[in-house]
Write a sequence for this structure.
């Protein structure tokens, strides 16, 4: 530590000496009663130096261009109907898909309560035409904490997904061969102790 302070002191001393050049004396003005102040005359001569003309760095707009006014915003009353139809791809929902009528959690397979460091098993009924099932696990704040694509109609959720005791939820949705959701997601609540 002493070596650090010694080096810092030497650097400061060298910088101080370099800043105060020893060959020059500091100028000190001593006013006397005989000295009078006289205004200094400074003359500025304006010089006319022509600057070179450079081509523009980017293209400029033609002289005939005028800005287009922005569109006016109008308020639409709350009870009015939209002026344009909403364009959305057609979806097959469970009302039109008879295979979805029996889709849901399988109570014979599901673990509803489990201890931390255990892997709970969740299960659901099969849907005709489903190639995969997308499974989501949620915590108590409805945040997704785990997601998996499963081919079977059951899944053992890894124990490391559950960090605290409490309520969790899971949902599963069947996907067809193109990965399109066939039915609305279904699921249940599970509780970790």
């Amino acid at each position: 530590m002493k070596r650090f302070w010694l080096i810092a002191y030497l650097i400061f001393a060298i910088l101080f000496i370099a800043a105060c050049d020893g060959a020059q004396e500091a100028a000190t003005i001593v006013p006397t009663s005989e000295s009078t102040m006289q205004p200094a005359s400074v003359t500025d001569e304006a010089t006319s130096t022509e600057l070179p003309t450079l081509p523009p760095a980017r293209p400029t707009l033609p002289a005939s261009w005028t800005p287009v006014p922005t569109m006016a915003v109008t308020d639409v009353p709350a009870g009015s109907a939209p002026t344009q139809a909403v364009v959305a791809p057609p979806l097959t929902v469970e009302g039109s898909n008879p295979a979805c009528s029996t889709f849901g959690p399988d109570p014979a397979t599901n673990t509803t309560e489990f201890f931390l460091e255990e892997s709970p098993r969740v299960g659901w009924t099969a849907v005709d035409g489903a190639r995969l099932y997308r499974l989501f696990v949620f915590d108590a704040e409805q945040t997704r904490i785990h997601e998996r694509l499963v081919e079977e109609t059951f899944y053992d959720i890894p124990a490391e997904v559950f960090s605290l005791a409490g309520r969790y939820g899971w949902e599963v949705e069947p996907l067809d061969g193109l990965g399109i959701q066939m039915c609305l997601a279904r699921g249940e609540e599970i509780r970790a102790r």
In short: The domain at 98-192 is CATH 2.60.40.1220 (Immunoglobulin-like). The CA atoms of residues 136 and 147 lie 5 Å apart.
